[in-house]
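WARN no homologs supplied; continuing
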Amino acid sequence: MLKNDIILLVEDNPDDIELTERALKRSGIINEMLVARDGVEALDYLFCRGIYSGRNPEEMPAVILLDLKLPKVNGFEVLQQVRADEHTKLLPVVILTSLKEEQDLIDGYRLGANSYVRKPVDFIQFTEAVKQLGLYWLLLNERPPTPKSTQGRKSGG
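OK structure emitted
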């Protein structure tokens, strides 16, 4: 149904990973979904480090679905580092979490999240939420071009 842009799911809960995969497939969203199971793995993927050191840095995900409670490096720290880097700062980041703390919502937007979605408990509602996320961020949303090379061009702030 949709062009093959990559979805980066940053999630440590195996059940939520499986639910997200099933929800995308049921919605007709056949995009490749890469899973990072902790914040370090997500950052390694985005910044081409560690096991991802050979990855083409020009091939960035169309959207990052980011859980907040992650091992090693939490979702807020991932978001902070994504927004601090010239090459990744414009990537769409959707916080997809079961947390219901108002401060988390405020902090997520303050740090530059594009959207904050609470995971519905019910599978049918979860499927519909993921479908809407996929349709919007992968089909309707116009993304900025990826910077070709930002080496040597640092902005202040």
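The first strand starts at residue 7 and ends at 10.
OK
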